[in-house]
Amino acid sequence: MTELLRRLRFLFRRGAFERELEEEMQHHLALKSEHSSRAEAARQFGNIALLKENSRGMWTFTFLEQLAQDLRYGLRAMLANKLFTGMAVLSLALGIGANTAIYSFMDAILMSRLPVPHPEDLVILHWSNRDRAPVVHGINGSAWRDEKHGRISPNFPHAAYERLRENRSLPATVFAYARAYELNVVVRRQAEVLKGMYVSGGYYSGLGVTPAIGRLIADEDDRAGAPAVAVLSYQFWQSRFGSRPDAIGSQVLINNTPFTVIGVSAPGFFGVSAGHEAPVSIPLHAMPLFAPDREMEARYRFLDQNFYWVEMMGRLRPGATLPAAEAVLRTAFHRFALASATSENERTGEMPSLWLQEGRLGIDSLRRQYGKPLFVLMTMVGLILAIACANIANLLLSRASARRREMAVRMSLGAGRWRVIRQLLTESILLSCTGGVLGLIVAVWGIRSILWLLSPPGDELTLHAGLNWTVLAFTLALALGTGVIFGLAPALQATGRDFTPALKETRSSAVSGHRKRFAPGLGHVLIISQVALSLVLAVAAGLFVRTLSRLNAIELGFNRDNILVFTLNANQGGYKGEALAAFYSRLTARFRAIPGVQAAALSDMLLVSYHWNDTTVTIPGAPAPAPDKKPNTALIRVDPGFLAVMQIPVLVGRDLDARDLRSPRVAVVTEQFVKKYFPGQNPVGRRIGLHDTKAPADIQIIGVAKTTRYNSLKEEETPPLVYIPYSQDMADLGRVTFELRTGTNPLKISGIVRGIVHDASPTVPITGMTTQSAVIDQTISEQRTFANLCTGFAALALLIACVGLYGTMAYSVARRTNEIGIRMALGAARGGIVWMVFSQVTVLAAIGIAIGLGIAWQTGHFVASFLYEVKPTDSLVMAGAALALITAAAVAGFGPAWRASRVDPMAALRHE
Amino acid sequence: MGTTTRPEIPPGTLYMLILKSLARTGVEESGGMHGYGIAQHIQRISGDILQVEEGSLYPALQRMLIKGWVVAEWKQSENNRRARFYRLTSDGHKQLARELQDYAHVATAIGRVIEAV
Fold it and tell me: At A867, phi and psi to the nearest 5?
């Protein structure tokens, strides 16, 4: 204790202490020199500075004090070199931040396990076939292709699920579910549109999810005629019921049908698919309640053995393995499929073959959707990090060699070797840490922006992408590692035994004697790789920007600007038949009356929004088509004002008008339709039939409209298209989209629109309020995101590489001031000096560009699928990127070269 | 670094040697010894075999100050220079006794080992 007091007292009078120690040693030296020569005494006494430091060290909290000292010195050094430090820290922050953000997102999508007990025992059931299994009459759900399996679908007939569930000898218990993409849910008179899940009785017990309160859906709830019940997710219960226990037993309206809430699932459980969080779950057998004809829907859903629509998962019984379970389930499903064949043709055709996928990660639709774009983004941010690390390394290397003399001086004045190394290390770690802290901020911000960038409008990605600390730690460790390695290596070198040569160097003559001018040092290699990587990014940016401009240049056939769009589903809200038509026409009239609205209409889908409604068409008098090549057309059901709102010109005949809503069936077709089905004829007045080849051709063509893009900007061929009034077939009219053309920014009137809709009916909520332009942009969001991000990344990489280049050249010029002075004294022209420096820049940049072009050429095919009408080896892009880099390198090299030519020979020679 | 090779002072014994030098009768009365004096004394008494390196002497003295075994005082030295004189405290006396005892133990033990046949 008293020892501590003595130490503390020392801290307050260290100035006096230093003086006393100095005096004591001088005294010692004086006495000693009386006995031998002073030089001899000094030599024997050794290193006074080190000795003082050691003596001082006895007193203090040396480590902390020196650390503070090093940090102060490091900060001062960083501030003295603002450009270098700024660039290093910035590049590191962006590198670390972007990587952490992208990897966190990847992790949330690709790696997170389902929040249920023992997720490793879960399996997902799929079937696949090479070509097209004839027993599968229809799929309601999803299907995709891959190399290994052919056509894949997770959807099965409900009867197949029942067969597998009843078989107790199977090595897995199976349960089923189907997604509800839009449910109109009214809680306490507040309507909203939510995603939901139709589940079988074994869903919650199979997953192992427990209720937070109440009970969950069980087998007795999922059968025909059972009371309509619903289970809420914990989060929904919290937000809409304020976690009140009396929510249990209360009624909610789902698609205008009352359901009783029986329970709330455990906190954290969001469903089986990371991208499809279901706030509400209802039994599979509740599905027919929403159909106009319940009995037909029930027959269709539960008895049709050839209609594939439910998805299935299974939980392996203890001891069962996935391959063993797969073999048993495959046989069982094969037997079912064989028995379900309705004709000889189907019986002898290819059968769908069941297989199992590990279920611990849940359903992988997001993985399929975002896997590849994320991989591309990951590669890009990985390159940024590599460039940033190379920059840090370069910075530290050139700084270390610039300070070789300083180190030598310090060591000859008595600084311990470890002490000097430690100080250098502190500086590099300080740099890395500053970058890391800023990187954290970039990461948090980045995660938010990625969510925003990738999710389509009106369909926010409900994804729990939090900051991934493991990834952050990894990238930070990488940055620290770079700092330590590239800080330590030159430090060890500079503080080696023999520092006399370094001492003898003058500020300006250094190194040039030791090294040949173009000997490639580590610094040069780093510069070259930076240039090469920047070029790769610049090429990628060029490709994406070109793709984007190609996409934006596509002629749509309608005017996309200033149209407000939003979706309603009054059918789900309880309006049927005449009431539905009246509701919509009343609303349309009120919208038309809003000041600033020039025209308003509605349709059952939007143009260029990835929606697709395809149907068969009958042309009387046309030759009978082959049975597998039925003529078909795209179809949009519209309000008569639609073509006017979209400003699609009618070329022949007349547009639809209000009379057509109630008149005999009429249609407007597109030029494309005429080209395909009435080549060289005037179709006005002709009749066509829709939906069924046997249906009578009772729809009269009254006009021909200009062809527009239909499904997406990228469709290879615009399909023939028919516009019919929405009042034909009201029964299956689901959601409709309103289009309001305005004079200025259409979103300005969104408040008024919401008011009108709420006023008209509080049970019909608006979803997806946006603009037609934004909808189209969203269909190319991938390309837009890539173009924007990649341009940003490329600019950043270019900037970092230029700073590296500038730093290296400026430093090399400074070192060679003396040499340049001599050259000029001997008659070298200023131009020659500029060229001398410039040629070095050019050589470095050219090597980097050549390597970069090679890499870009080799790896371009990885992004080919994201490009549109641009080849990955587009020579214009390659040339542009190379030009950008050579220009940037020239700019970076100009400063040092110019400075070299300004060297005053006299001053340079006199200098030291 | 000198060219003459002398045996090093065995590690750990420097404190004991300094303490012992300061504990001699008469030192206390004459107001203690300065650093150079201590070094000279040890060298002389040991017959020029033990030479105290200044690099270890002053850090050792600082450490002993911290431990409270010695106290220091600035005074005029014999040749009219200001010098720092060190004196033993009671803690220092106790420490010396402890170190001597430990050293005796170790020395006896080492003696047994190297004289064993």
Answer: -100, 155
